[in-house]
Amino acid sequence: MEIERLRNLIVLAEERHFGRAAQRLHITQPALSRQVKAVERELRVPLFDRDAHRVEVTRAGAVLFTDAAELIQRYDELLARTSRADNAVTGHLRIAYSMTAARTASDALVQTFRDRFPNVEVTATDGWSELNVELLASGRLDIGFVRPPVKNGVALHPLGNTELAVAIHPEHPLAASARIAPAQLLEVPVTLWSRNLGFGYFRRTIDQIWGDTDSTLIREEPALEPIVATVAAGEGAAVVDLHRLEQLHPTGITLRRFTPPAPTAELAVAWNPDNHSPLIGRFLECCT
To answer: pLDDT by residue (tens digit) across 205-261?
Structure first.
């Protein structure tokens, strides 16, 4: 039996009138009537004697509602104690984002953690996969957002894939295409995030777009700003996280999606299994 349904029946027992009870509960009378019938079917006893003019509690209903009021009070106290226990959690959680990814998913997780554990101090900085893994391994970081695959030694909780797209100058010949096929990039200088920021991410991007036919015209940059500047100057194209660039709203840049299936990049939460901070487990709870 649902606890909220039981609450509603207690209100009806107090009001002894469907209209007043429904108004007090902010639900319709038919909805309240269906709840009464559902509970009576479940218990196989009538809880109310009712006709067009009156609603009376039966003997079985009186027994139920007397004990139910105490049960609901204990249930509410349990929820309150649980909430206070969460609020009593303290400490310091060190988090690093991934510069290559849009912050939508990671920001939402961090905010959920902050809301759930307001007494925990959270330090959040920008990073990248290779650096975050290094900091996790050395114990200088608790949670890192990374682009798998990454080096062994860290545990991962996948958050899903993000779509990659092509950034080009509006006057570049490729801008005439509604979508861009990977083969169209073979003879075009293409800028990618540096492999030093995340070799797994770099290698996976190349494998998805060119496969065994590596382009010899690949450039590497350590940050999004020089990638955007290169494209805005008309120097070829760049492969970037679609939503990351959309968040930046750069001028002088046109985004084109790939022809299906579009290449993607995985995003994951990483942590060091040898770090036994209870706050890591609390953060992972926010990811599910």
So the answer is: 999 988 877 666 788 999 888 999 999 998 899 999 998 888 878 888 999 999 999
> Are the C-beta atoms of 280 and 262 separated by less than 8 Å?
no
128 vs 83: which has the higher pLDDT: 128
pLDDT of residue 104: 86
Roughly what angle, to the nearest 10 degrees, separates helices 3-15 and 18-25?
130
The domains of the chain, with CATH numbers, are 3-86 (1.10.10.10), 91-159+267-285 (3.40.190.10), 161-265 (3.40.190.10)
Output b/e per residue, 31-55; b: 16+ Cβ within 10 A. ebeebbeebbeeeeeebbebeeeeb
What tokens appear for 96 in the block? Answer: 């690093």
The token pair at 213 is 């036919």
Backbone φ, ψ for residue 261 (5° rounding): -80, 130
What span, in angstroms and rounded, lies between the C-alpha atoms of 200 and 120?
A: 33
Sequence-ordered list of residues with C-beta below 8 angstroms from that of 7, at least 6 positions apart, any chain: 72
* Residue whose token pair is 């009138």: 17
d(CA 155, CA 268): 10
pTM over 0.70: no
- 148-152 — which CB contacts under 8 Å span 24+ positions? 148/200, 148/201, 148/266, 148/268, 149/200, 149/204, 150/198, 150/200, 150/270
**Residues 6 or more apart in contact with residue 128 via CB below 8 angstroms:** 98, 99, 100, 193, 197, 198
